[in-house]
Amino acid sequence: MNIFNLINISSYLITFINTIKIYFLTSNYKNDNHIIFYFPVKAYSKNIVDLKYKLEKHKNIKSFLLYNKESKSEISFLDGSLFLDFSYLKFIPFRNFFLKNIKLFISSYVNYVFPPNSKNIYICHDISDAPMVNKKIEKKIFSALSKLHYIFLSSENVVNYFSKKFMYYKINKKAPILLNTGYLKLDNVIKNIKKLNNDCNQILLAPTYSKQLSKYNMTHKIDEIIMKLINNGYKLIYRPHPLDLTKKGNQGLVRFIQKKYKKYNNFKIDISSSYLKSYSQAKLLITDFSGTAYTFSYSTLKPVIFFSPNEKNLNKETLKNLYYFKDRKNVGVVNTKLKKMQTDIEKLLGLKAKYKSKIFKLRKKRILHINNSLKQSSDCIIKILKIKK
């Protein structure tokens, strides 16, 4: 990392100052359990913030919400928030001394740097066992995850998926403890989406990360799909994957789509961190294999079209054995040809009641702690901290 520019120097200095600040704040309350919640990217975070507030109902728990430049707009206005970018920590002298009182580190994104004495928890934001990353970097990710103490997971399917991956990469001896705590994000969306009273008359198009399994995703067909839907008179919300709004993704494609279709009254783009509004306005979702498929269907009980133009070859891969792919027809249909898209849309809209029932049954089967994940997660953390209730 090149820290020798004005923006990075400023971020470094603020990180340095706030690292020292954390030391003094935690030293003044040595008998308390100090927790860091870290938000390294701009993403939906209300579920994690709710967990902070629930935990702080215990009088001997104090916590910090730490953010960086990416997540500033989502976190900086909240109580207990501080700017502290963990990517600069290796340049901070005496960092281990300043952070020595932190008992617990929690994040919903994979991290590589932690306080010296903390138990570290990763709250996985995957609702199903869809492939997390490309094979080339999967081993690196699971190697990083092995440095954690606990991983909170949404369902038994995902627990089994992680367990098999740790065994496959032969790091099961030092693997973290895997806990099925339910899906915080799903419960939070279900609770908050009820507060929105929008007309559900639009189609939500939400693809996976453009560089994820590129031979199977819909990236190369996005423009064609949008044009077809708009020309057929559908109102469309295009929500790019969050990574495609960063340098890691395909920002050029997002800008191209935004510029090309801004003149159409039945098109809009959603690049906000919260998908609540888009979910509440959509009558169905179109995706390829993004995890948002099941978050959407389980929270709204509305159907999904899985666009899979390379389905024939996908069925030859071990991917087909994942529950993500097995469950697709329980929440919607698999579309392999764009020319049949309108037919599939009208089919699903005509069978809304049927799919609502099917989705409800699948959700009950797959998500053990539905509407109870906040308590489940909090109870697990209290147990980890060895606090008596």
List the helices and strands and how they pair.
Elements: H1 6-27, E1 33-39, H2 46-55, E2 61-67, H3 72-75, E3 81-83, H4 95-98, E4 102-107, E5 119-123, H5 135-145, E6 150-153, H6 156-168, E7 177-180, H7 184-193, E8 202-205, H8 222-231, E9 236-238, H9 251-261, E10 267-269, H10 276-281, E11 282-287, H11 292-300, E12 304-307, H12 311-314, H13 323-326, H14 328-331, E13 332-335, H15 341-350, H16 352-366, H17 373-384
Helix pairs in contact: 2-17, 7-11
Tell me what the structure shows.
The protein has 389 residues and is α/β, with parallel strands linked by helices. It has two domains: 6-188 and 370-384, 3-Deoxy-D-manno-octulosonic-acid transferase, N-terminal domain (Rossmann fold, 3-Layer(aba) Sandwich), CATH 3.40.50.11720; 190-366, CDP-glycerol glycerophosphotransferase, C-terminal domain (Rossmann fold). The chain contains 17 helices and 13 strands. The longest helix is centred in the first third of the chain and has 22 residues, at 6-27. The model has no long low-confidence stretch (mean pLDDT 92).
